[in-house]
Task: inverse folding
């Protein structure tokens, strides 16, 4: 090899020919919408047809673009990750063949059921992925509502696919972008990827861009594991180069290894299919119900099929299970597990309330267990209001004068929601508490002119701290919260017609909304006192429910807030402590106007308990900090001195403010905080 350098002729002039015309992949990349968090652009047509399906194992895009025989010349995909994990995506394909063949292929191979734009218009298309022709031979598939932005990963894909015209696939993925609410420290901020092919191998080149210099200290094995997860297990060679905050990784993969991998997966899929076929249940009519062990095995199999079945098949599978259980129970009437399994399938998904009610009555007459009256009431809620009213009275759940209202609300709730295992029991307890605790609310007295304001996050913990300072033991209890507003006493929703109850929030912080005959609205919920995070979540959910647009009275008047603490397993007719407040609700804060405990300084309670608890985060590690803002230097110094006797708090003072690193157990830290500031609250013991 000879290297010739023209030293005498002066600097050589760089000559450039006309820029090559963009190919199909480049044109698709230019059409990707702005604001992508990740993108992939591929050229399936440059890979021999017999090898295209092998690329699927290491591709970053949809596998259907790489199937052998796919009518795809070029492919582009972009995804946008929004807050709360919402993902929107756009797929563009330059196709071959006639339109009908392309449609048939996509309907058969695409991982979603597509709605074509010429078959529906506007809202009639629903939420399904939508396909449309946007140019001759170019199909666009959209999923979700794309939010346009000025920049995103799509710019990187357009640059890569233009720079690497021999690339079979390029991709760009950003870890944090455009409002996404997650970030894993130490992982690359961006990953660029290029896949090239030759006659014997596939070369995958990835460039990782770390967020800052500090991330250079992260072990390379961790970065390789995160960024090369779908290629490193099949690569024959891995080359790593690090330049500042950028890392380049080159993976060499042989075609034969991809072929072996594909064959291994096919064998695995065949084995799984044979195993699944072996696990198929025996037809219900052919099961020998005399063999109890066989019955139990077949019941378990059918229960699994019911749980995993799609909605269209779930009821059919459930009816097969019902038939088997009814035959087996007739042969083994004293087997309690069969009765429980039959009850569950009758309630959900069959929703045969009458059959579940009859089964419950039979088990009650047998004396099968204390849980069957509750099951009977849950079934009665599916049957209808008169049946549930009689069951509520017979079981002594609510007084007869309230049974009609309770039956009306609980049957309406059962009709609105899937019959979750614990939903009816929870709703019944909440309805009962709304009556029992609502009629036992203590009197309130006017507080001083100084406002006492603290966040809804801490309202339950603040009330619990006050109750413990008044002598309530730290035994685990249920904290019930009742918020009443809009009735004739406070003005607002007078004469409102009866409405069905509503549920607010997830199961962990659920609130039941009830309408009283007077027109007042009652929100009822409960959380365990041993779980501070659930107390905080219930407080947050209360703030959200109160400021729902359907509650105009909240912004016009006051909320009557009652918090009761009841021992686990005891009735709400026996609360250990009840605290009542009349509050103004302002956003995520409450301002106490009146309260049942007139001997405590509520402004001091808010300053030294409510606000510090509200400033505490929900994390456990590292332990969150509690911030206490005293009203004078003397008080701050006094609190700092007393904190030395509280092992759960490690405090330092900054003028008026104490910053206390708290124990990792939030409940222990809260009790220590209450003890620390007890003398500042003027408890009047």
Result:
């Amino acid at each position: 090899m000879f290297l010739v350098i023209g030293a005498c002729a002066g600097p050589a002039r760089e000559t450039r020919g006309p820029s090559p015309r963009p190919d199909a992949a480049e044109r698709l990349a230019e059409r990707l919408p702005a604001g992508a968090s990740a993108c992939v652009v591929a050229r399936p047509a440059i890979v021999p047809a017999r090898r295209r399906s092998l690329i699927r194992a290491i591709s970053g895009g949809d596998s259907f673009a790489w199937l052998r025989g796919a009518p795809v010349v070029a492919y582009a995909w972009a995804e946008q990750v929004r807050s709360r994990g919402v993902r929107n995506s756009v797929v563009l394909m330059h196709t071959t063949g006639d339109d009908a063949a392309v449609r048939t292929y996509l309907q058969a191979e695409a991982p979603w059921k597509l709605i074509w734009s010429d078959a529906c218009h506007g809202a009639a298309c629903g939420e399904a992925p939508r396909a449309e022709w946007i140019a001759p031979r170019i199909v666009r598939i959209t999923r979700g509502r794309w939010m346009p932005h000025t920049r995103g990963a799509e710019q990187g894909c357009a640059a890569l696919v233009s720079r690497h015209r021999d690339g079979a696939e390029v991709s760009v993925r950003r870890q944090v972008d455009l409002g996404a609410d997650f970030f894993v420290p130490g992982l690359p901020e961006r990953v660029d990827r290029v896949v090239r092919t030759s006659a014997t191998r596939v070369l995958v080149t990835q460039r990782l861009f770390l967020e800052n210099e500090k991330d250079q200290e992260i072990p390379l094995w961790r970065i390789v594991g995160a960024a090369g997860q779908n290629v490193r297990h099949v690569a024959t060679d891995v080359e790593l180069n690090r330049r500042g905050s950028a890392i380049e990784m080159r993976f060499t993969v042989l075609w034969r290894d991809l072929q072996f991998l594909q064959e291994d997966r096919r064998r695995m899929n065949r084995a799984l299919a044979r195993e699944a076929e072996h696990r198929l249940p025996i037809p219900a009519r052919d099961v020998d119900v005399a063999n109890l062990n066989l019955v139990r095995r077949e019941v378990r199999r059918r229960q699994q099929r019911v749980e995993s079945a799609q909605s269209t098949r779930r009821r059919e599978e459930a009816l097969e299970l019902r038939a088997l259980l009814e035959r087996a129970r007739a042969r083994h009437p004293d087997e309690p597990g069969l009765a429980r399994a039959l009850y569950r399938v009758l309630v959900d998904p069959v929703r045969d309330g009458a059959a579940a009610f009859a089964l419950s009555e039979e088990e009650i007459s047998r004396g099968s267990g204390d849980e069957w009256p509750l099951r009977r009431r849950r079934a009665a809620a599916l049957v209808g209001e008169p049946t549930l009213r009689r069951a509520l009275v017979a079981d002594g759940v609510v007084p007869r004068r309230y049974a009609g209202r309770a039956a009306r609300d609980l049957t309406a709730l059962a009709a609105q929601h899937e019959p979750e295992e614990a939903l009816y029991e929870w709703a019944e307890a909440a309805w009962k508490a709304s009556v029992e605790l609502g009629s036992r609310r203590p009197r309130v007295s006017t507080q001083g002119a100084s406002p006492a304001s603290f966040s809804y996050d801490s309202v339950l913990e603040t009330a619990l701290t006050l109750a413990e300072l008044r002598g309530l033991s730290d035994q685990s209890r249920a904290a019930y919260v009742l918020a009443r507003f809009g009735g004739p006493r406070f003005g607002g929703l007078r004469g409102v017609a009866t409405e069905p109850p509503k549920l607010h929030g997830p199961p962990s912080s659920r609130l039941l909304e009830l309408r009283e005959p007077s027109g007042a609205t009652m929100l009822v919920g409960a959380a365990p006192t041993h779980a501070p995070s659930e107390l905080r979540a219930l407080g947050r959910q209360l703030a959200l429910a109160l400021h729902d647009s359907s509650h105009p009275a909240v912004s016009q008047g006051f909320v009557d807030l009652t918090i009761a603490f009841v021992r686990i397993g005891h009735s709400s007719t026996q609360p250990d402590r009840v605290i009542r407040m009349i509050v103004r609700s302002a956003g995520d804060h409450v301002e106490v106007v009146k309260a049942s405990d007139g001997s405590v300084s509520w402004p001091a309670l808010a300053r030294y308990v409510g606000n510090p608890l509200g400033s505490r985060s929900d994390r456990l590690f590292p332990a969150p900090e509690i911030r206490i803002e005293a009203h004078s230097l003397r008080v701050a110094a006094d609190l700092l001195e007393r904190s030395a006797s509280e092992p759960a708090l490690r405090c330092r003072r900054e003028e008026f403010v104490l910053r206390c690193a708290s124990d990792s157990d939030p409940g222990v830290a809260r009790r220590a905080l209450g003890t620390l500031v007890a003398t500042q609250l003027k408890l009047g013991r």
The radius of gyration is 33 Å.
